[in-house]
Automatic annotation (TrEMBL):
SUPFAM superfamilies: Nucleic acid-binding proteins
Pfam families registered for this protein in UniProt: OB_ChsH2_C (PF01796), zf-ChsH2 (PF12172)
Region (Disordered): 126-153
Protein name: Nucleic acid-binding protein
ChsH2 C-terminal OB-fold domain location: 55-120
UniProt domain ChsH2 rubredoxin-like zinc ribbon: residue ranges: 18-53
Domain of life: Bacteria
Matching Gene3D superfamilies: 6.10.30.10
InterPro entries tied to this protein: ChsH2_C, ChsH2_Znr, NA-bd_OB-fold, Thioester_dehydratase-like
Amino acid sequence: MAGDPSTPGIDDFTRPYWEAAAAGELLIRRCGACGRPHHYPREFCPHCWSEDVGWERASGRATLYTWSVVHRNDLPPFTGRVPYTAALVELAEGVRMMTEVVECEPDRLAVGTELTVAFRTGEDGVSVPVFRPAGPPQGQSSSRSHSPRSARR
Ligand SMILES: [Zn+2]
């Protein structure tokens, strides 16, 4: 897959990340020295500079932090995808990542919207993490459970 300009940079260091993505798992890095996670993947901890950093599977849950609807992007492969929602999300683990929100009308998004990770495989065969709204579609509350009192005596 080398040479494709739309392929994210994959090298020996980031390979586990992309292999996990292909398997539907999101990985983050966590420092063994200070215990803090980070993203994007780096070979050392950006908080304490320790190199004692390992991969950890993220829950895949996130909340929306900020976003922007992109209507024009002349760079392939984005040209054919506009409009799309570029977003910064905060993972449940406490790290933020740049991504894209899918399967949701932009005007239904709000800060704090609960999201869950999904994966999109591009034409180059590389799966990239994107996020979609978590749980059932909003609008009608299905949580109204008036369970009739069981007439037990
Ligand atoms: Zn650290």
